[in-house]
Amino acid sequence: MSVLWASPGGYEAVLMASGFIFYRQVEEMIQVPFPTEGELAKAARQLRADKAVAEESSREESGC
Fold first, then answer.
1. In degrees rounded to 5, what are phi and psi of residue 15?
2. What span, in angstroms and rounded, lies between the C-alpha atoms of 19 and 24?
3. Disulfide check for 13: which of 4, 6, 38, 59 has CB 3.0–4.6 Å away?
4. CA 34 to CA 52: how far, in whole Å?
5. How far is CA 36 from the centre of its chain?
């Protein structure tokens, strides 16, 4: 299924795998904003910090 077109009013045209095109009203459009470059960098730093803490905790528990 692929969305061919979507309107601000909550309607969209959808192409199905069978080749049919449906025009439907979507009750609630969900908008997911793309993160900015700064937000991605912050998330990557946090992930690395969390991983380092987990690895350090694992070493302490194993006694190495």
1. -95, 120
2. 16
3. 4
4. 27
5. 13
Give the tens place of pLDDT for each residue, 5-40: 777 777 888 888 888 888 888 776 566 677 788 888
Question: Which structure tokens are listed for 53?
Answer: 């803490």
Interacting residues of 27 by C-beta distance below 8 A, sequence separation 6+: 10
Query: For residue 63, what are its two tokens?
Result: 């006694």
DSSP 28: S
- Which structure tokens are listed for 47? 């992930």
Cα–Cα distance measured from residue 34 to residue 30, given in angstroms and rounded to the nearest whole number: 13
pTM of the model: 0.43
* Tally of helices (H runs) and strands (E runs) in the chain: 1, 3
Tokens of 19: 């080749």
Round to whole Å and give the CA distance between 62 and 24. Answer: 57
